[in-house]
């Protein structure tokens, strides 16, 4: 991918890109934190406030669960999956040997960030800009994805390992009831984080020349 040393005007740019490059998926996590809960909360709040959204619709909603509250969400996931096993929708052997150990590994972490989109809040903007009405839901999801990525990178920068999960819609109803969340909040993802207990796997890249083009570059 090239080894030419690039000189940026702002040194923080190089730091930011190094953080992006170092972000990885960690599955081995334990319930320890290298920073205070206030510092974790600050990362989440900055994401809520400063990640952009189309037409400034601000549709992302985020819930931070720590310690015992974090454990609850994975207890919910285990209970839901057990119900699917009992109903014959998930093979018991698969659940016992693969799914349950994975869910328990998430439970063993320090916290979980739940990411939601409030699609109902888009009604006024859809009416005002009817020509774009079918675009606003995807735009909202894109904004939410930016929040997920920012929080992931920031938490890893502070010493956490993390992995992103998608257990919606299986757990949505119980999550809403447990934390009394508005029905209009639709969950998209769960970011599990904690102190790393193992190294991540190797990153694999498709050829850059198949994924990137540049035109009009100065020599």
Automatic annotation (TrEMBL):
Entry's Gene Ontology cellular component terms: cytoplasm; nucleus
An example Gene Ontology molecular-function term: oxidoreductase activity
GO process annotations (BP): cellular response to oxidative stress
Main location: cytoplasm
Subcellular location: Cytoplasm; Nucleus
Pfam assignment, any one: Nitroreductase
Keywords tagged on the record: Cytoplasm, Nucleus, Oxidoreductase
Domain Nitroreductase: 20-194
Cited SUPFAM superfamilies: FMN-dependent nitroreductase-like
Family: Belongs to the nitroreductase family.
Full protein name: Nitroreductase-like protein
Organism whose genome encodes this protein: Aspergillus avenaceus
